[in-house]
Amino acid sequence: MKLNIEQSKLAEILETAYLAISPKPTDPILGNILLIANEDGIVSATGTNLNLTIHTTTTANVETSGQVALPAKLLTDTINNVRGEITLEVENQACIITHNSGKCRLIGGKPDEFPTLPKGENPIEVNLSAKKLQAALEGTLYCTNSDETKLVLTGVNFKIDTNKWQAASTNGHKLALVTGILDSEYSDPIDFTVPGKSLSELNKILSQSADTSVCNILLSNKTIEFSLPNTKVISRLLEGEYPKINSLIPRTFEYEFTLERKGFESALKRVSYLAERKQKVVKILWELEATQATLYTEATDIGDAVDSVLMKPATSHSENISIGLNIDYLLEGLKHIGTDEIVVRCNKPTQPVIICPMGGLLNQLYLVMPVEIKQGFEKVNNQSTKTEVSTQPEPNTEELTDIAQATNDSENSEMELPSLVAKDTTKGKSTSRSSRSKKEVATA
């Protein structure tokens, strides 16, 4: 094999293929990138860890066709540190790389031992805008579960029904859902779950694709192929039934508030410094007449913080509502919403809170469970001040309740998505701030 190629072209396909290489490959050959040069001037680079395979191509001046498997990291680092036109010449398993200021020789593995690209039988074809697929991954990947004992929850679940499609993820405490419309219709419902690790690498490739690119998806029984111009990403599917996401989302809401996203995010960050490190709980009082949301946090023996942001209520209720939420979960959800305004929808203080963008490329929602706070706000001299806020540590699994009990629409759900409702552990204990009274808040 012998070819001449621009450094930038070779570096690009190597970096893409390298995304599929495991840092600790189970077989030495899996630590290599397979380079293949064809007489028609097409050069391909392939990397795999057996669960994920990335195959990408470019053009070059190929004098002699052939193939070689070279150490992925060593090859990528070498090409990234040279400039100009490069000549690759392979003899047996050795590759001589000649550049404008010198040359080097790399010893690789046997290319015939490199795994072949997996092929599915009778695949279902789906075409989707690359930018819409990227938006769906951005809006769901952050809610996948990192605990591999619940393997199916480590992925993103996709459903297609006629011409409607959705992507959903959950880790048991929070949930993300993105929906859209396809150009084609499918007679039978389609349901599959793709590993989050595979989709994270796909997302990096999608971020570099053109706005007009279309992703051709080929779905088989055990594998899925995402085909983009010059690049294919092939992943194994996760087995097992994914929880019934849609039955966990309330269909109606008593309260709705519109806020400026960056202002709300900034207020959360300001009060987060005075929140307890373990709980990271913020109490939000939605004041309807004042059209503002007041945020309150407290850290024992350190201090407390109060902040507020303007909001637009849309509700028939006249009573204010206060809800306790995990600050980190809130900030994480806001980070993955790209619009200037958001809509917060809720019912009772113990039921799911939904956050949606105003507009956007796709329909998107983020569900987070509240934290029950026994103490609340008092109005003293027309200023929002605290009485005593009882923020409890995040409970163990035994102390959690099923989210199905928090919404009337999920009675038949098979999913165990626990809420963050903690037991009150302050009974019988005295507070270090005896000068302040402790008052029980009647939740709305």
Structure description:
- InterPro entries: DNA_clamp_sf, DNA_polIII_beta, DNA_polIII_beta_C, DNA_polIII_beta_cen, DNA_polIII_beta_N.
- Residues 383-395 have a biased composition (Polar residues).
- It is an enzyme of class 2 (transferase).
- GO terms for molecular function: DNA-directed DNA polymerase activity.
- Residues 247-358 form the DNA polymerase III beta sliding clamp C-terminal domain.
- This protein has 444 residues and is mainly beta.
- The protein has three domains: 2-113, DNA Polymerase III, subunit A, domain 2 (DNA Polymerase III, Chain A, domain 2, Roll), CATH 3.10.150; 124-151 and 167-240, DNA Polymerase III, subunit A, domain 2 (DNA Polymerase III, Chain A, domain 2); 248-410, DNA Polymerase III, Chain A, domain 2, CATH 3.10.150.10.
- It has six helices and 25 strands.
- The protein has helices at residues 7-18, 72-80, 130-138, 196-206, 261-272, 327-335, and strands at residues 2-6, 32-37, 42-48, 52-59, 61-64, 66-71, 85-91, 94-99, 102-107, 124-129, 155-170, 174-195, 214-219, 223-228, 231-236, 255-260, 281-287, 292-299, 303-313, 321-326, 341-346, 353-357, 363-368, 377-380, 383-386.
- A ten-stranded antiparallel sheet has the order 11-12-23-22-21-16-19-18-17-20. Strands 6-2-3-4-15-14-13-10 form an eight-stranded antiparallel sheet.
- Strand 13 and strand 14 (223-228) form a beta hairpin.
- The radius of gyration is 27 Å and the shape is elongated.
- The N and C termini lie far apart (74 Å).
